[in-house]
Amino acid sequence: MPRRLLLLIGLTILIGFQRIEAQVVTFDTVNTTITGDTIIQEKPKAKLPKNKRPHSSKVATIMSTCLPGLGQIYNGRWWEVPIVYAGLGGLGYLAYSNYSDYHLYLDAYLYSTGDATEVSQQAIDLAGHYSSTNLQTYKESYRRDFEFYTILTVAWYGLNILDACVYGHLYNYDISDDLSLSIDPYLRPTETPIKMPQYAQVGLSFKLNF
Description:
Blueprint lengths: L1 H21 L8 E5 L2 E5 L14 H10 L3 H5 L6 H32 L8 H9 L2 H38 L10 E8 L14 E8 L1
Antiparallel strand pairs: 1-2, 3-4
């Protein structure tokens, strides 16, 4: 009798534990907002991986427009920043250098023709060393070079903006170097409406993944 009683008590406890486990409810952390008589519960958003987070190409474009290289940093391509500034610095220096030489030879030309009297000593030395025809030729050459390098500087600045815009669009795009070719046996379904010869029912399928 005591054994049966203990067995009955044990079964009762076991059944009770199973019912308790069945009634356990797992609660998620939610944000509750009460608006009037309406209760709105919002689940917290899961943290997205870096390559899935919202990324705006418009923001990258505006940032590179305001400050060259800033959009590249926003796109995660920080190593392009030295290239951007090396191009702007080099082309800008060449434009400025040709601009200075153009004005120097312009002053020398005007001094040699008698159209200017107050010029630098360097311009006076050039006027005494070269003829008016040569000074005009050099002057026009430096002017063309100045315009050419100015255009290149502006183009490089525009390329910096275009680069930020393009890679802003491709930020979440999965660019993988994994190119694989798989060859699998192929069996043509017998329900196809086109009648094929018996030897064409079996073959190989080629799949290129990129």
